[in-house]
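Run log // design_07
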């Protein structure tokens, strides 16, 4: 079996197939944790502390069920190919050694094995996956089609992940930290202007916009509408002068503003964006006036 086919099947193929190019023992060895170092090319950069504690608790009770996979550096040093979560959890659990498969692999093979195994098996966030794909492409001079064969993913899926790396850094961090999801990010990618991407990203965080909302905004921008006019339909600027841009509901809002202003005896204001989200502002000039307004609400609650 070629290395390419083995990698396409994942780490199980690398461990169980005797005729792979990366030869190693099929027996399980107990290796001291102090002799093990993480792989610097590990794509995962963030490990969920709560999940590690849960895994550590399980290891304390029943031990490490699945051996990790190591590469022997010298007599006293091993580097992790796969299983850094189990390694970290074992440290937390207070173990001094861990069951492991020992593999001999060249540096390039080691890096490819680690990246492919993690992409296929670990719950990486979208940006970590994208960076891992990019790392494989650049390091091994792969095309997206070749990478698709190695990791067992459709080429279109890989392309979608790689496109995330074209977003502004702040937006990439938002995806990484799960402030927005992949759907939001893909909608933002349809907008070519980074300034607009950042503006809409911040609006997603402020207004908790859905993916459909962002897709609608992106569609309007692609049709040539100005971003500020889209987000603030009641205000637009033309030739340096402010003018009202009447939307389908602005007249109704004007009537409602007047009605509520008369009811509360203060200047009630509305603000609303294209998505129908906004706020009602009821100003007051003194604590007495605030008490009067609260009294009106109290009376409404009694009805």
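design_07 sequence
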């Amino acid at each position: 079996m070629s290395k390419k086919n083995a990698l396409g099947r994942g780490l199980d193929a690398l461990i169980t197939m005797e005729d792979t190019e990366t030869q190693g023992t099929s027996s399980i060895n107990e290796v001291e944790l102090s002799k093990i170092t993480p792989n610097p090319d590990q794509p995962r950069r963030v490990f969920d502390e709560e999940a590690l504690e849960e895994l550590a608790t399980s290891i304390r009770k029943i031990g490490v069920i699945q051996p990790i996979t190591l590469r022997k550096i010298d007599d006293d040093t091993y580097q992790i190919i796969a299983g850094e979560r189990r390694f970290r959890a074992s440290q937390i659990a207070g173990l001094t050694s861990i069951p492991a498969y020992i593999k001999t692999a060249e540096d390039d093979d080691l890096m490819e094995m680690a990246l492919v195994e993690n992409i296929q098996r670990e719950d990486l966030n979208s940006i970590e996956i994208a960076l891992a794909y990019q790392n494989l492409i650049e390091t091994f001079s792969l095309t997206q089609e070749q990478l698709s064969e190695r990791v067992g993913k459709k080429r279109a899926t890989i392309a979608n992940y790689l496109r995330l790396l074209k977003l502004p850094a702040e937006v990439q961090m938002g995806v990484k930290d799960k402030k927005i999801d992949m759907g939001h990010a893909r909608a933002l990618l349809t907008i070519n202007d980074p300034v607009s991407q950042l503006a809409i990203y911040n609006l997603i965080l402020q207004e908790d916009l859905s993916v459909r909302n962002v897709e609608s905004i992106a569609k309007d921008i692609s049709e040539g509408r100005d971003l500020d006019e889209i987000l603030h339909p009641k205000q637009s600027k033309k030739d340096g002068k402010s003018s009202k841009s009447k939307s389908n509901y602005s007249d109704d809002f004007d009537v409602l503003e007047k009605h509520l202003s008369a009811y509360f005896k203060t200047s009630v204001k509305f603000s609303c964006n294209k998505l129908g989200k906004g706020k009602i502002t009821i100003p007051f000039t003194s604590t007495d006036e605030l008490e009067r307004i609260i009294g009106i609400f109290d009376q409404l609650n009694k009805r």
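The radius of gyration is 29 Å.
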